[in-house]
Amino acid sequence: MKNRRVRVRFAPSPTGPLHMGGVRTALYNYLFAKQNGGDFLLRVEDTDQTRFVPGAEAYIVEALAWCGISPDEGIGAEDKLPHGGPHAPYRQSERKPMYRAYADELLAAGHAYYAFDTPEDLEAVRERAKQAGNPNWQYNSITRTSMKNSLTLPEEEVQRRLDAGEAYVIRVKMPRNEEVKFEDRIRGWVSVNTLNLDDKVLLKGDGMPTYHLANVVDDHTMDITHVIRGEEWLPSAPLHVLLYRFFAWEQPEFAHLPLLLRPDGNGKLSKRDGDRLGFPVFPLNWHNEETGETASGYRERGFYPQAFVNMLAFLGWNQGTNQEIFSLEELVAAFNLDKVNKAGARFDFDKARWFNQQHLRLQPEAGLVADYRSEAAARGLSLPSDAFALAAMQLFMDRAEFIGDTLDGAAYLFADPTSYDEVMVGKKWTPEAPGYMTDLKSVFAQTDYSEEALENAFKAYLADKGYGFGQVGPVLRLAMAGTTQGPSIFTVMQLIGQEASERRIDQALVTLS
Length: 513
Hints:
The protein is mainly alpha-helical and 513 residues long. It folds into five domains: 7-81 and 219-261, 3-Layer(aba) Sandwich (Rossmann fold), CATH 3.40.50.620; 96-212, Glutamyl-tRNA Synthetase, domain 3 (Alpha-Beta Complex), CATH 3.90.800.10; 277-360, Glutamyl-tRNA Synthetase, domain 2 (Orthogonal Bundle); 365-403, no CATH class; 422-512, Arc Repressor Mutant, subunit A. Helix content is 42%, strand content 10%. It has helices at residues 20-35, 56-67, 96-108, 119-131, 155-163, 211-221, 237-247, 271-277, 305-313, 328-334, 349-360, 365-378, 386-395, 422-428, 433-445, 451-465, 469-481, 489-512; strands at 7-10, 39-42, 73-74, 112-115, 169-172, 179-184, 188-193, 201-203, 226-230, 253-257, 260-261, 286-287, 294-295, 345-346. The strands form six sheets. It has a three-stranded parallel sheet. Strands 4-5-8 form a three-stranded antiparallel sheet. A two-stranded antiparallel ribbon has the order 6-7. Strand 2 (39-42), helix 2 (56-67) and strand 3 (73-74) form a beta-alpha-beta unit. The chain is elongated.
């Protein structure tokens, strides 16, 4: 294993939108592959056609592309390699004949068997077991001896049923009372007795493999060296270890990632939690054709992909330093699979917003201006120039978590106020206010309308008249912005210019006096 090129895969099922936990799994696989000079594959595990959702595969590809997680091989890599790579096809539904051949190999070696039990037979057995006080009946190394399969039926009877086309499944023949041990990169040594494992179906009645057979066969034939997947697959790992042994194949290294937990730490994070608490659990918007509902995604909520990826990386991993802000390239250099935690990672949406706030400030000016223009256009606001856009945006950047935050409450930068804060007008627009405005219009006209000159002229006016800032400052701000809240009014006046500033003073004198 040590001399082999590192090859990992992300193998989601197209049963719906990709959950953020799935994106994290893809990310960890990608980081591990890139750090070790290896390959990251994208494979689609669509053996359960009853749960197939149209559009889900395209969603997975688009979501990973948005995150910058680009496969070297497989689905989504068709532009790099013919058919996506030398191990095509990369959809399990298109590899069906291969799985049958490997199932036959297990049958011939005595590691699998035909089971002819009908769904009705199985339901009847479960019901009898339930009545006897066993609600968790399993088809295993003990109970199989009383079932209808090729281990209990005469060979001639088995052949007759097969020749007659009778429905069957192929099950793994689990060894009885044997310890299965394997080392997990995150959890250490894991040991399970086969008495606690059931005889899983490997090949279904429709000829399609289950996850277990397809997963092991594909990982072997695609030369996968490390299987990095979610904790929910840990109970299946002993079976997979046995299948590698039955086939006499080299076993990949396993690493089972911790669950993503709800914000309160109680239970696995789900879409329902996001709906209830007001945050997305998907990378992109997802429209459910059946219900007509659209679930929001991080992209559409204004998150930068760099921030989303940075946040996901820290849900279960920490390099042990104070650094929290990473680019994807920096994550590749810093990531260490051995520093992934065993315990579940509690999701914190406030922290997610904080990550976006930090990455917002790291965006290049050209990108920020483009994003600002796009957001402004969506709100029906027009910008005279890129320089204006950049200056306007910077006025509200201090507390902004998203680019849209820099436009909230900033309408007066783009158009003269059409209304004024009634409460503040009542408090600050005194009978003396028109005189202040008339004076200041003349005072400001003598400056070059730079922020510094405007502020100095204003202070000189206050000193000359003996006025306090609290008397005149709010009045000027009301005239310029319609509100007494916001960034430096002199910065605003410099931005909108002399003509607009004087027009707003005149408008306030007419409207408020």
